[in-house]
Every structure is written in structure tokens, then in C-alpha cells.
# Entry
Amino acid sequence: MSTIIPEIKKRSDYQQPDFLINHVDLEFTLAETSTKVICVSQVTRNGLHNRPLILDGEGIELLSVHINGIEVSNYQQTENSLTIDTDSNEFELRIVNIINPKDNSSLEGLYLSAGAYCTQCEAEGFRKITYFLDRPDVLAKYDVTIIADKKNFPFLLSNGNKVDSGELPDSMHWVKWSDPFNKPCYLFALVAGDFDLLEDQFVTQSGRTIALELFVDKGMLSRGQHALDSLKKAMRWDETEFGLEYDLDIYMIVAVDFFNMGAMENKGLNVFNSKFVLADAQTATDEDYFNIEAVIAHEYFHNWTGNRVTCRDWFQLSLKEGLTVFRDQQFSADMSSPIVNRIQNVRIIRERQFAEDASTMSHPIRPDEVIEMNNFYTVTVYDKGAEVIRMLFTLLGKTGFLAGIKLYFKRFDGQAVTCDDFVQAMQDANDKDLSQFRRWYSQSGTPKVVVTDSYDPSAKTYQITFEQQHSATFDQNEKQDLVIPIQFSLLNDKLELIKLGDAKQQQKMLELHDSKQSLEFKNIDSKPIPSLLHGFSAPVKLDYPYSQQQLGNVMLGSPDEFARWDAGQKLFSDCIHDLAGKTQQQQKDSINQTVAMFEPIIEATDISLALKAEILTLPSFETLFQQMDTVDIDGLNQSRKLLFKALAQKFQNNWLTQYSKFEKQPYAYQANQVEQRKMRNLALKYLTLSGQHDVEQLLIEQFNGADNMTDSLAVLGAAQLGDLDLFEKLMLLFEQKWHNDPLVLDKWFALHANTERPDILARISMLMGHSQFTINNPNRVRALIGTFSFFNVSGFHNIDGSGYKFVADYLIKLNEVNPQIAARIITPLIQWQKVDKVRQQLMQHQLMRIGDTKGLSNDLFEKISKSLP
Ligand code: B3K
Ligand code: ZN
# Structure
């Protein structure tokens, strides 16, 4: 392991900044390898002290430093700081420096994306642009001037409003932008390039007209409409649901091809990964359409939750991310099917967040210690963070929650604050003591709620007991009891709802705050079946000794659609887990019994088609993996396949009916079409797996006749699942058709990477030589290498260790190019805790190899050092 140990930053060490900057004047003269940056800051000393000014900076060539117009030379420079000693309490600091966007492959700071300049400053990328107080609690107004060659860079963009522009000799031009809102430097953005521009307008509830501008690669204009429509929907929704209106006169979105994440909420100038902007029927799936709408909304919602009120320090990241994810989830639910959305949210928690909690990267939604901040943009901070906000919503009710939000903005607009400030506003607006609830912010791990019950027939009473249990996690030994809202109802044996309590409620909410709490119900005629954790009212693992019959009843009769889906998933999971150690005949019997329980679902008329498709979808391998403490990888994979095939064969005729019953319509991204495609393509998968004799014909017909990417891709997915020779043939045709469209090819790379075949590593190595593949583009790397390591169970976990070695070799290369992406893709390798001892050792060996890499980034160092025993 590398011997230089990077600094660990602690939340408890927070100190106010020694200096504040209230105005910044930036001037950029863009040139590929030597961009000149002039940064003029108005600095004031914060409090009475004589400490020097210490600025952050990384990879910067410093030309000069002036204070109040006088050049200073008695500064000290280290690899990542510039220290200037001055007596002045208020001064103008002028720094001139050079940076090299062309060689910046980290995609942080100022870099080139396919010929266009763009920036990414969150979390700590501004320090790669100039020396600055790169922390979110230093808020300033920015004026930005950009100078560049006019022919190649006709559009010069930054935050706020365009206030001036002009021509210069040698076909250069300049544009000046001014942002009237105070902001931290992580929200600064600059984009320069030649784009196609899609324009529109939005009239706010108070009657202001906002110019909307969407910049895309040349020739991509027709693929931008869905993003723009989504933006308008999000703007309207935030007004009607949260009373929040946009504040600048212009809102710009730029789509770029080289981007580390989904998108970035820079004030007035969002920069997006083109994957989350560009869509048309031919190239994007229903899922892409959905994601675009969600990410566009997420970044827009940040304008209030993140930009107007921002984080005091990066440990508070969930203040803006958890809240904004919750807001985008509510928006998506309103735009499409609430239940399908909720299921999707829960899948992320169970597949990925529970995995993080069980790993050496376990951390609370408000982490206590960080080496590399970029490592903490996690499913815990984002998605568990959103679940914590959702619990507040559940506990306070919509009205109470909105009162809390209102007070939060009243108190903190224009400030950089903490998660505690947020909870305090919720508490004060509702007059509800949330002190115990706050533990969700400081405690990591997945709580378990164990439910037991008893029925006394003579007294006709039913007692149900809830107990919360917390185990130590890698980061914390001591755990405390939390406040856990549990929504539930009771069903009688005729699957009718039992009225609960005085209010004749049918659903009850228990606020579990003690380690154990019981409820008693009187006048109950027979032992009820509890339908528990409606809507996934808390991010916990629930344990109730359901019989198979009871689960079947909840699946068919619960008033809560989430509970119905969940019961079905549990039936599937129990069956899969129980197959281990059984004889073939026992396995067969047990599978048949489970499969038969789903017959009424196929015929059901009381649920939407979308929910039906969700119920009939098996839990993913990753979800099943998280349900166990130790996993027999091969056994689990095999068992899941057995059940999959049995479902396919048992309902073969039904699948054929489901496949053929919907009339084909020209593609539109509309709810009824989306759910029909979902069911039809699920049926196609099952048909393929069932061995239906003419399925190849069906697949070819759908592939040739498809007018949209959802249907084309479904054919490839089905052929892959069925292990048909046709798969290779269709993949070739697909590649020929989409050779010049990298976003579409990513789907093809990912399908290849996820194929079970003995020569998978040779196949991936060959694909790395594809003309469209480059290690410099995160979308390509995620599609090929990421998909392999996250999802190709047999290839990645090959017992000979070749999968782990392959990923490790790649990460060693990627460490030099883009440490952030390398640290994302290492995730499956550090999650060795549940696998067998042989694999554990193989994985750890590869982690050690990566750890020994010369020039190991902080990103990888942090994850590897934590995960090695
Ligand atoms: N705030 C950005 C994420 C920045 C990640 C930096 N490594 C996107 C978002 O959550 O909206
Ligand atoms: Zn966000």
C-alpha cells in the first residue's frame, strides 16, 4: 500500500473561514494548453486574528499575485496551496495563472470535452482553475469575462446574465456575464464551444418570462425536445407543489459528451452528460426518457435546495442531495406511475445502499470523516438521504413538511447551512421534538425491524410487537435506537381489511422509537395477517415469519400496492434461497408451488399493467445477494435461473397472450404505451427462456419492425438471456447501424459486458479496441468495464480470480486518467464481505495490487485502505 497517507478531514474540525470573498471578477483567455486566468477577489478578514490567507490550488502555473495593485512575492506555494501573509483586513487580491484544459483528463476544473471547453467544480474542482478559498461557505458575486476564438467558440457561457460582449482583433471575441446571486465557487461554470441551440420560454407564476436555452452537439437538435419539455414541467411543478419560482432571467443547459456524473446544477448554467439530455424514439429507451426527465428536474430543483440555500461544509452534502432526490422522486411519481417509481427507489436502496452499509465504505448520510470528497457522492448520502427526508414527510404530513420547508427558506435563503439547521426548521415549524430523529444523520447501517405477533381467540385480542435491532458497521460500533415510521394494516382470512383504532383507519402508522413497542387490537375475530411497511415507510430490513400462504394473501389482498409487490418479491426470494441443499425433486416441487401462487397476478384486473409487470419480475441477483450474510455466488446464480425458467415454462401460454394482445402504435413516450411495452417485452423475455419453438421468428420480427430503441434493445436482452445464437447476429447488425452513435453504442457495450460466456475477458479486451471506445470517456468506461464488474456475476466472480484481476488491471490504468471514475468502478471489488473465503482472498489480493500502484489517487487510496483487513 502506498506509504504517503493523505489527510483525513473530520466534520468535528469545522472552523469558519479566516477570510471571506464577497466579489470575484474572473477573466479567461481560452487556449487549449495554456488558458490564462485572471481572478480578482474582494477579500475581507473574518474576525480578529492575524493568520495568513491560505488559498487552495492544484496543478496551477502561477504568474503573479497583487494586493491592492501592488505585486507581492513573499508568498509560499505548496503542491495544493498558496499562502499569502498580509496585514490588511480588506483588500483586492489579483491572481494571474495558467492552466492546461487539454491535458486535464480528470474532467474536474476546466477541461475539453470533444473540442468544447467546460467546467466541473463540485466538490473541489475550482482549485484546479485558480487559487481560491475553495469551500462552500465562502459566498460571492461573480462577474466573468471569457475571451476566445470566435469561429470555433461562437458561444461563450457562464452563470447569470449576459451583460456585455465585443469583438477583438485576430477573429477573437469576448462575452461578459454577471451573476447577481451570491454563490460558492462549486457552482461556478464556464462553457465555450459551437453548438446547436434550442430555445424556448417559461412564464413563471408571478408573470416573469424566463428564456430557456438548451445547447447540444451540432446535428442533435431534434434530440433535445424531451429535455426542454421536461424542464418546463419541472419549473411548473416546483411552483405548484413547493411554491418555488425560478429567480434569474435565463436558464441554460449544455449537453457534453465527457462528464463524470449525470449533470451539474451550476447557477443558471447546468452542464449535463449528453446521456441525460439527448433522446428520440430511435435512439433512446423508455428508461432513458424517464431518466432525462428526472435528472433535468433534479438539477432544476437544486436552484432552491442547494443553490439558494447551500451546504456549510461538504459533510452536509445530504442537506442538498437527499432533499433534492426526494423532490425529484416526488416529481417523477407525479409525472408517471407512483408505484413503479417507488419500486424503483426501493430497488436502489436494497441493491446498492444496503450493500454500501454492509461494506467497509459504510457511512452515515452525514459522514464524519472524508479523505476524498468525491467518494461521498454515494447512494447513502443521496438515496438513503432522500429516504430520511421522506420519513420526515411521513411523520409530519404534507402540510407540516411544507411548513418546515417554508421556514427553512425564510431562515436560510442566501446562506450556507447544516443538516441540523434543516431539521431544526422542520421541528420549529411543527412543534415536534425531532431530537431522536436526528440520529438518522449520524448513524450508519441498515436497521432491522423484527415483528412478532400473537392472537388470543378467547379474548379476541391481537398483539403485534416491533423491535428495532442495530448491528455494528465497519465505521461504527455503538448504535442507538432510531425513530422508525412503520405504516401497516391488518387483513382477515377473507383478505378484507380490518379497521384499526378509533378513527376507523385501515392503515396505521407506528412511530417506533423504543427498542421494542407493542400494539394491541381488540375485537378481532381471527388471527390477522399483517401487511407491513407500506410504501417502504423506512429504509430498514423487515423480519416477520410469514408463511408462504400469508405472503400470497398480502400479495393479492393488501391495500398497499408496494406491500403487494414486496410480498411477491419475498415469495420469489424465499424460494430461491431455499433451493440450496435440496434434492432435484424437492427443488422442482418447491418451485412449482411458488410459481403457482403467481397465477392470479397474471389474470388480475385490479392492478395496473405496470405493477403487474413489476410483480412478475424476479428480484435481481444484487437484491438477493444483499438478503444474505454469506453468499454462495454460483449457487445463488443457479437457483435464480431455475426459478426464472420455471416461470417462463409454466406460463408459456400466458406470456404469448401478453405478448400479442396489445395493438402496435407509433412510438410515443406516454404512460399507457410505456406500460404496454414493459409487459410485452417482459413476456418476450419469458417466451425466449421457455424455449418456445418459434421464438426466434418473434425476435427477428420485433427487431426488424421496431420503430423505437426500447423494443430493439428488448430483443437483444431476450436473445442474450436465452443464450441464442441469434444474439451474436443481431448484435452485429446493431453495431453496423449505430456505429457512429456512441450513446447508443454504450447500450451495445453494456450488453456485451454482461454476457455470460467463457471467453468474456477476451471479448471485453477486443471491445476496448473498438474505434468508439476510449478510456477518456466515462460513459464508455462505465458501459464496458463498469457493467462487467457490477453485473456480470459469472465473469467477475469467476473462481479462478481472472475477473477480479482484469478489473484491477484496468483500474490501475484508469487511476492515472480519471481517479473519480476508477473509484466508482472499484465498488464491487471492495464488497468482498459476503463472498466465500477463496474469493475474499482473491479480491483482497487484487486490492493490494492496486494499492501498490505508484501515484495512487486519494480516491482509490481511501476505498482500498478501508477495505483491506
Ligand atoms: N451536484 C452534482 C454532483 C457533483 C458530484 C461531484 N463529484 C450533481 C447532482 O447531484 O445534482
Ligand atoms: Zn444533486
Summary: Residues 379-412 form the longest helix (34 residues). The chain is about 40% helix and 20% strand.
